[in-house]
Amino acid sequence: MNILYTRISTIEQNNNRQVQNAKDFDYVIEDKCSGATPFFDRDGGKRIRKMIAKSQITKVTVHQIDRLGRNLLDILNTIDYFNKKGICINFIQQGIKTLNDDGTENPISKMIISVLGVVAEMERNLIRERQAEGIAIAKANGVYKGRVLGTKESNLDFLN
Question: Per residue in 61-94, pLDDT tens?
Fold first, then answer.
């Protein structure tokens, strides 16, 4: 079975650009979580692991590397797990596959994935820095009062 895996970080986002060719796949699995969450701790990752255990997956396609994760070590561990199971991951935007047609590891893709994984992790860190800076400014201006207890929504009126 050929799986399309998508991930968006918040419920406000949509995965339209990631599912443009969804009809070309047997199954689409979508996660709505931070890329910092380890792949197999996500609901979709857990589903994929169960499907692998049942030998139901032959290939996984992901729109781009940062959809797999934003932590280099987790990205590499996830890919290693798939490679050991003989399941190729195809990254659409980068045009690379983790395994060659004969099932051997693709060393060029491993190098590219490592570099782009570092970039994804760096982007995640920059996002967190900008978020913290924006919250600090809002607090200093008396606009940000923090998250309302018992809800997932923050008081981010200063962004509007």
Answer: 999 988 998 888 899 999 999 999 999 999 999 8
CA-to-CA distance for 68 and 75, rounded, in angstroms?
7
Q: What is the value of pTM for the model shown?
A: 0.73
Dist. CA 57–CA 85, nearest whole Å = 10
Name residue 137's amino acid: I
Question: What amino acid positions are annotated as catalytic residues?
Answer: 9
Confidence label for 143 from pLDDT (cuts 50, 70 and 90): confident
Alpha carbon distance 5, 117 (integer Å): 17
The rounded distance, in Å, linking the Cα atoms of 74 and 149 is: 31
- Residue 104 backbone phi and psi in degrees, to 5: -80, 155
- Burial per residue of 48-61, b for 16 or more beta-carbon CB atoms within 10 angstroms, e otherwise: beebbeeeebebbb
